[in-house]
Amino acid sequence: MKTLKHWLLAATAAVACSAQAQDIKISYNGDISGSPSAESGQIGVLGITAAVDDINKRGGVLGRKLTFLVRDDLGQPPKSIQNMTDLIDRERVAVVFGPTNSGNALAWKHIANQKKMPVLVSSASSTAITEPAGNNPNYLFRISMVDRDQAAALVAYAAKSPQSKKIGFFVETTGYGQAGLKDMEQIAALHGIKPAVIEKFDARDTDMTSQLGKAKAAGVDTLVVWAQAAPLGHLVRSMEKIDYMPRVLTTWAASFSGFPQVAGNKLMEWPVFLTTSSEAKSPAAKSLLERIGPKLANPSMFWAATQAYDTVLVWAAAAEQAKSLDGEAVRRALENLQQPVDGLVKQYTQPFSAANHEGLQAQDYHWSRWQGGVVVDFKDPVLDAMTPADFKK
């Protein structure tokens, strides 16, 4: 991780030093070293760097080349706020991408809105990030998973599956876990589902056999789990200890390297989880994987590069449509994009509006699983039968 971090900072510093005065500065403000989430930050920066290179080869934005600045916020809200202020006031950037951690985005959301700075979020998933900022416009947009939609997808699958007769919710006791539980309970109610058990565990726990014993006694056959990578790994190991292997449906946390490292080669293949792109299938995605693949410590998280790449394309399209880098003009263009943008995750046809700043919806997500040490698509008759109406939220 440290080597890749140094490469990222050195590469972007070299680009910045060679920048011309007329170049447009764009930036990333997120964690690339301080927490487990830094993994997605590092890979996201690789995706943004590739997009900048491609756009510059085509002539840039508004006839000007892009210069990419990276600021590591170490996963700390005070540092992230400091970075944001510096990027806006001193560097005069045109747009900020990131962050990695939801808490950091919420810590400086008001700054971006007050200074009318467009932000395209490529990783942080808290539902509150793109919610309206009172009566004032919100300048934060997202091309990434959002927690509410992940919960909608997971519960929709459980509700649709004839094999899921008794459902249990397992969550960690962090703010992340509790927010996920709130979303899951509300969405389950929309489906008329009452979970048979709701069990919690500390993110540092390594033995969840007590909680699993209660689920087993209640006859739970499907667990919907909201946890980070390492505790998720300990959960499936605990399942094996008591010979209780219900179906596990979970978030994109299962794609982070901490999960297979804890779960091991056999158990890592048990959960079904969500990503935004399981495999590189299109020629453009395959090309990006060839370019950045050697730098990926965890190729299973290639999705982080694709959605970060797409954020740059969508912002560039908005700036071209606005014929301006003015923050308010770009925000209005993002809310009413006239031309489709061919991204790596999907084609974005008017992805945003004044009322909706989410570029991806639950039905856009990919269902995935580990197989043979890599993340692959998961398919079954339940998914084939699902329609957008199933994703209640």
From TrEMBL:
<keyword id="KW-0732">Signal</keyword>
<protein>
    <submittedName>
        <fullName>ABC transporter substrate-binding protein</fullName>
    </submittedName>
</protein>
<comment type="similarity">
    <text>Belongs to the leucine-binding protein family.</text>
</comment>
<dbReference type="InterPro" id="IPR028081">
    <property type="entry name" value="Leu-bd"/>
</dbReference>
<feature type="domain" description="Leucine-binding protein">
    <location>
        <begin position="24"/>
        <end position="347"/>
    </location>
</feature>
<dbReference type="InterPro" id="IPR051010">
    <property type="entry name" value="BCAA_transport"/>
</dbReference>
<dbReference type="Pfam" id="PF13458">
    <property type="entry name" value="Peripla_BP_6"/>
</dbReference>
<feature type="signal peptide">
    <location>
        <begin position="1"/>
        <end position="21"/>
    </location>
</feature>
<dbReference type="InterPro" id="IPR028082">
    <property type="entry name" value="Peripla_BP_I"/>
</dbReference>
